[in-house]
Amino acid sequence: RPELKQRDPYNKLLAYQNRLRVEAEIIRDLALTASGLLERRIGGPSIRPPQPKDIAMLGYANQVKWKESQGADRYRRGVYIFFQRTVPFPMLMDFDAPDSVKCCTRRERSNTPIGALALQNDPTFVECARVLGRRLMREVPQGASEEETVRQRIVRAFLLTLGRPPAEDELQTIRQLYREAYQEFRHTPQDAAAYAGVDPKDKDHAARVAAWVLVARTMMNLDGFITRD
After folding, report:
1. Residue 3 neighbours by CB distance under 10 Å
2. What's the rounded mean pLDDT across residues 17-36?
3. CA gap 132, 44 in Å, rounded
4. Rounded CA gap, 45 and 51, in Å?
5. DSSP-assigned letters across all residues of 149-196
6. What is the pLDDT of residues 114-137, one digit of tens each?
7. Which of 95, 133, 123 is nearest to 216 (CA)?
8. First-to-last CA distance in the chain?
9. Mean pLDDT of 81-94
């Protein structure tokens, strides 16, 4: 309630829940959920999601073998990720997961550029953004009005990533981002196809998909996406 921030601005009386960034495993789960890729099966052996190829080579005597999981296993929850003590999964380390070398009574919650770079460039997040971009186009088909279609897709993107509709200024900002991206990708169809992972033959379609993928990557890089209120 708004009046609580005036009566207890520093939350000394525990009048409201503090904002906090969710745990490393949950960040990955959020991206998989927003894109619709999350495999919800419970139990079973550990998984090995994609990671930079050279990471495993850092293990002792080149003994670490990281065979990427295939099929639905690739998209299982972060809690099932195999933890190699000598070469921890880098995405988890970027978001302060314990290293299993010593006891951990409470996780730290750092806020560094490394986290933003992971959300933008980690293979899992890139794949999730591509799938989410296509999901927006699939769940909100092209209507008679281009403006209304764009608006509905942006609203859908906010609901899937932040769990709320956008404010008017947020709607305008993301709309402008989409327009600029779409115009840019129309002039570089090969880049658009590579960025979105689609066939470059249909230039307009590739530009639209790429623009929505960019919107998806932006939404999943927001503070609100990885923060619990």
Report:
1. 8
2. 93
3. 27
4. 18
5. HHHHHHHHHHHHHTSSPPPHHHHHHHHHHHHHHHHHHHT-HHHHHHHH
6. 999 999 999 899 999 999 999 999
7. 133
8. 13
9. 87
